[in-house]
Specification:
4-stranded parallel β-sheet, alpha/beta, single chain, 2 domains, 278 residues, Glutathione S-transferase Yfyf (Class Pi), Chain A, domain 2, 14% strand
């Protein structure tokens, strides 16, 4: 990526906050000793790297508060999803193979985006179908890729991180997190344990916001209409904050709300969990 320090946030300098919580953590055949901290690598995503580095820093702080050892492979680049969606499969494969190399030694890869997680866990398998050697590499990566909230709940087996966030909020589930990663419960389980947070239902919550990456460029008027519908539903909740697990969605919805003069805040789940703690 352009700047391995994520702007002014040097992830490599965020100090660990103590050993991992005791207990066996099992996944894809890996059993960690009770006293051995879990080690993960952060895949930052292009949008977070270039536009929202504070979200990447929040992810690292939350994980390290849980006693996780986090590293940040500095040679990581885009996962290739824009190219894949646009039909440039040869170029997408080139980027995917770079990802294979960057995270070859990682035990887990944590991704603060359902969209990028889906690309790495699901669509790489499609990209390399028929290519035995690289399909095996895609499968090995797929087995250790987790979206951020999914990793907290399914691997670390935590729900209450001691976070405090005052106010009323609505949660928008992103399409790829729901439909490709298949994670529906983890974000709301985590939000349900945040003290002082009043989580309200979002009408038509599972409807797409209209961002879709290159979709919003290729079909701007359709994207704008979908974003307007989503903004209407957010405003109808009376919430002060909109929370999601994908900054692409929050950029789309937040932009629409801002153009309407709304002061509703948009926050990645990691930022909420990284806030004040009990």
């Amino acid at each position: 990526m352009g700047d391995p320090t994520l702007g002014c946030y040097d992830l490599s300098r965020l100090l660990p906050l103590g050993p991992a919580k005791p207990g066996l953590r099992r996944n894809v055949g890996i059993t960690l000793a009770r006293t051995e901290p879990i080690k993960v690598s952060l895949f930052a995503t292009c949008i977070i790297d270039q536009l929202f580095p504070q979200v990447g820093a929040s992810v690292v702080r939350v994980l390290r508060r849980m006693g996780v050892d986090v590293d940040f492979p500095p040679d990581q680049t885009c996962c290739g999803q824009p190219l894949y969606n646009a039909g440039f499969t040869r170029q997408a494969r080139q980027l995917a193979q770079r990802v294979f190399s960057s995270f070859a030694e990682s035990s887990y890869v944590v991704v603060p985006s359902g969209s990028c997680a889906a690309m790495m866990r699901v669509f790489y398998l499609d990209l390399f179908a028929g290519d035995q050697q690289n399909y095996a590499r895609a499968q090995a990566l797929s087995d250790k890729v987790y979206e951020f909230s999914e990793f907290l709940v399914r691997v670390l087996e935590v729900r209450d991180l001691g976070a405090v966030y005052s106010g009323t909020a609505a949660y928008h589930p992103s399409c790829h997190l729901l439909r490709e990663v298949g994670e529906r419960e983890a974000p709301e389980l985590l939000l349900g344990q945040v003290a002082d947070l009043n989580l309200v239902d979002l009408p038509q919550a599972e409807s797409c916001c209209g961002f879709g990456g290159s979709f919003s460029v290729k079909y701007p008027h359709i994207s704008e209409g979908m974003g307007a519908d989503k903004a209407d539903n957010v405003l109808a909740t009376g919430a002060e904050t909109l929370i999601s697990c994908d900054m692409g969605c929050l950029m789309q919805i937040g932009g629409t709300l801002s153009r309407r003069g709304s002061d509703i805040k948009v926050r990645h789940l990691a930022q909420v969990l990284d806030g004040e703690t009990r």
